[in-house]
UniProtKB/TrEMBL annotation:
Family the entry assigns: Belongs to the glycosyl hydrolase 5 (cellulase A) family.
The keyword Signal belongs to this UniProt entry's keyword annotation: yes
Gene3D superfamilies: Glycosidases
GO biological process: polysaccharide catabolic process
PANTHER family hit by this protein: CELLULASE FAMILY PROTEIN (AFU_ORTHOLOGUE AFUA_5G14560), OS04G0481200 PROTEIN
Record-annotated Glycoside hydrolase family domain positions: 77-355
Gene Ontology terms for molecular function: hydrolase activity, hydrolyzing O-glycosyl compounds
Name the record gives this protein: Glycoside hydrolase family 5 domain-containing protein
Short name of one Pfam family: Cellulase
Superkingdom per UniProt: Eukaryota
Protein keywords: Glycosidase, Hydrolase, Signal
Residues making up the signal peptide according to the UniProt record: 1-24
């Protein structure tokens, strides 16, 4: 009926939350009242500065046609929690029939739940959100959008399917134009009505034309015919919003645009979206070597969708996510690879999903959503560790208006969502600088020379990353000329960063040593590289590090050279 635990954004931290939201606006993380546009691959605000969409999906397209969770928590509390978790927008789903079919559009919330015999959920809504009980379904939808706006959250309206229900299958009648429930004229009418209805709502910044086109009828010619028609209809009714186009095959395929771009009457408002889950590739992650799977699958999604970034189009990863219980091997191995790609490309994205449970899904009352950020009761994060690693992807790394520093490299550890930072503040001749994982906004500014295979600090180029041996902490040192300071990428995934210790006179027998995380879960060490190829039984993600480019300001610290002991600073530095 309700949630006995305190909301994430309780009174004690509300002031901090509001300050954080204000800073997010100032640093281009996104503001609810922004009118967005596109230029090249970037989403921009009115000043021409980048806005990174870091969204979470919130469904309102299932049989009750009400935003999930309103029987568990007040809508304002849920919206506050979304903001407190660092998301700046919601991909809010809706079914076409909500606005085109009187058997839904004429219903109140109470009537919708009563006809589905959802007595307990309706009782919870009466307790937690009494103001929506007697509203028409579309007015309840508007109320949620309004609450999200009050918490400085942008909204992308996603036309998820036609007839309310769970999505998606090839045979559900909502897959492609001309299917049982997917009349193109009705669809365009629905898009036009929604675009018109929300034209004056400032936090509605985009409309996704259709979720996961699919099924035996799908074909490229009809995609162009109807998606272009839908895009024109939305833009004509509401020229302020971004128009977001999905691809074929459950939104896994936009490759056809490589040879035939869209032809629209307007510019500066178009983006594309793609979905990427572990199950998009069947059991490849668990049945094969994770490095080889990562390389093969990333190349595939780049060929089908991410290539558009280089063609000057924004591509939003509008659905991705994992089983947050951590028990799904396929998901577990997929996540580090997907996060590495998202960080490397600095993608806009929308996580699946917010909801901890459903009113009704596929005939099951109160079904637990294991992909949900929130727990079943909508009280707290389902998995704090999983949330923290997603939060690492929320901050933009580069783009228009973010040239705060010359480009530098970040050493990102995808599976933890942390970056390599300095550990030892005061080195000595016998104790070099050591490193650990820490918040990515506290990263060091690294430079990587592919020719010299050297990773050095940009503000203290005499100091390079060095392996000290198997099982030992990696360090920052001035001895940069031998094999223990030459770093290369030694697996198909390009995520194993390693030295060849057999080339070093003092380390014969160690072989390839990869960056790794120590037993304490924080220290950065080197260990023999594992799971490089063939072996499908081990998980390499602890040794996965991605070198990512950033232009964000680096936290001001005393220069590394200034911290060196006087005797060390006076050394003549040479290569060996």
């Amino acid at each position: 009926m309700g949630c006995s635990c305190p909301p994430l954004a309780d009174a004690a931290c509300l002031a901090l939350l509001l300050l954080a939201l204000s800073l997010a606006c100032r640093h281009h993380h996104g503001c609810a009242a922004a009118t967005l546009s596109t230029a090249s691959r970037w989403v921009l605000d009115e000043s021409g500065s980048r806005v990174k969409l870091a969204c979470v999906n919130w469904p309102s397209h299932l049989e009750p046609v009400l935003a999930e969770g309103l029987g568990k928590r007040p809508v304002g509390a849920i919206a506050a929690d979304v903001a407190a978790m660092g998301f700046n927008c919601v991909r809010f789903t809706w079914p076409t029939f909500l606005v085109t079919d009187a058997s839904y559009s004429d219903l109140t919330v109470a009537q919708s739940f009563q006809r589905l015999n959802l007595t307990e959920s309706l009782a919870g809504i009466r307790v937690n959100n009494p103001g929506v009980v007697d509203l028409k379904l579309i007015d309840a939808f508007k109320a949620v959008v309004s609450s999200l706006g009050e918490h400085n959250l942008m909204v992308i309206l996603d036309n998820h399917l036609s007839k309310p229900g769970w999505c998606c299958s090839n045979t559900d009648g909502s897959g492609f134009f001309g299917d049982t429930y997917f009349d193109p004229d009705v669809w365009v009418d629905g898009l036009t009505k929604m675009a018109t209805m929300f034209a004056g709502v400032p936090n509605v910044v985009g409309m996704s034309l259709r979720n996961e086109l699919r099924g035996p009828r799908q074909n490229v010619n009809d995609w162009y015919k109807y998606m272009q028609r839908g895009a024109e209809a939305v833009h004509a009714a509401n020229p302020r919003v971004l128009v977001i186009l999905s691809g074929l095959s459950f939104d896994n395929d936009l490759a056809f645009l490589n040879s035939r771009p869209v032809n629209l009457s307007f510019t500066g408002k178009v983006a594309f979206e793609v979905h990427w889950y572990s199950f998009s590739n069947g059991p490849e992650w668990s049945s094969g070597n994770a490095n080889q799977a990562c390389a093969r699958i990333t190349a595939g999604i780049t060929r089908r969708a991410f290539y558009l970034l280089d063609r000057g189009w924004p591509v939003i990863l509008s659905e991705f996510g994992v089983d947050n219980r951590g028990v799904n091997t396929n998901d577990n191995r997929y996540y580090g690879c997907a996060a590495a790609a998202a960080a490397d490309l600095d993608l806009d994205w929308a996580l699946w999903a917010l909801q901890g449970s459903y009113y009704l899904r596929e005939g099951v009352l109160g079904l637990d959503e294991v992909y949900g950020v929130l727990d079943w009761a909508w009280c707290r994060p389902r998995n704090d560790t999983a949330l923290r690693r997603v939060q690492a992807l929320q901050r933009p790394l580069r783009g228009p208006g973010l040239a705060e520093a010359a480009p530098y490299t970040v050493l990102f550890h995808p599976v933890s969502g942390m970056c390599v930072v300095r550990r030892s503040p005061t080195p000595s001749l016998t104790q070099p600088f050591q490193l650990s994982l820490g918040p990515c906004n506290e990263t060091e500014a690294w430079e990587y020379s592919a020719q010299q295979q050297r990773l050095a600090l940009r503000n203290a180029a005499l100091l390079c990353l060095r392996a000290e041996g198997a099982g030992r902490p990696a360090s920052l040192a001035v001895s940069c000329g031998d094999a223990m300071a030459r770093w290369g990428f030694v697996s198909d995934s390009k995520l194993h960063v390693a030295v060849n210790a057999t080339s070093s006179a003092g380390s014969v027998g160690d072989g390839l040593l990869c960056l790794d995380v120590g037993a304490d879960g924080r220290s950065v060490v080197t260990n023999p590289c594992r799971c490089l190829s063939a072996d499908n039984s081990c998980d390499p993600q602890g040794q996965w590090f991605k070198l990512v480019s950033s232009t964000r300001s680096v936290v001001t610290k005393q220069t590394m050279l200034a911290q060196l002991p006087l005797k060390l600073k006076d050394w003549k530095i040479r290569s060996f």
